[in-house]
Amino acid sequence: MQLLLFWRFGFHFFSVIDRTQITPPEAGRQDCQNLPGLFIRVYLGYPGDLCAIKNMNKYLHWNRKNISDFSELNISSLYDEGYVFTRRGKGVMDQTRSIRIDLEQFEMSSENKRILRKTEEVKLKIESLPYSDYHWSIGKLAKDFYDEKFGNGTFSANKVRELLVTDESNFNRLFIYKGDTGDVIAYSICYENESIIHYSYPFYALGLMPYVSMGMGMMLRAICYAKDNGKKYIYLGSAQRSTDTYKFQFKGLEWFSGSDWKDDFGELKEILSK
Description:
With 274 residues, this protein is of the alpha+beta class. The protein folds into two domains: 2-54, no CATH class; 63-273, Aminopeptidase, CATH 3.40.630.30. It has six helices and 16 strands. Strands 8, 9, 10, 11, 12, 13, 14, 15 and 16 form a nine-stranded mixed sheet that branches. Strands 2-1-3-4 form a four-stranded antiparallel sheet, with no helix packed on it. α2 (110-118) packs across α5 (214-228) and α3 crosses α4.
């Protein structure tokens, strides 16, 4: 089936593409509303579905697999080859410029310790997924966080709910962070097995937190948990933008080049600066 693409500011013919080359939006129509900046609106032919592809940017991946073997051995092996779980669908893994810490090499730096002191009231609790205590406010918190940080439609409340309460999720842990009053103030959606943790999709209430460096404090607590529980690696997402250099401060850090793991972050900074 062919599709017509139109510019946002007027229905001018742009091009014709094949529907089979487009993936429907992950979380429905609400992901496609009011996106700022230049983008293209695509009618997919799905009932009521009008989505926006903002700036035509794509998540960096060299290869993609859809696995059916969910054994810990197979998953850990694929992570070692640069693949990571995604939210695209059950079993979908992308090979990307992954970042990980070799926890045998990890030691707390003075800056790491300073961040933990700044957030010393924050406590980490870990729940298994599916999460039985899910409330709609969790999805809203995530949506608001990603809208503010990365633009409208980045991560919908519906997709968050899918990851947390259904069997369609690749992730099996919810990292829950509580403040000094005992109230939940932040979350991260993660994957854990006996040898690795994939720390991913953190979110919290921007502008309402009394804690300085909350995001880094959350990540450090996940790293400490992984090390204390005998994991070999903790994966911290990928390096795609110049702003991702905040992840480079940890001892034992490595990045996947597409063929092997490297620890030369001067080279990676040069790549990201282009």
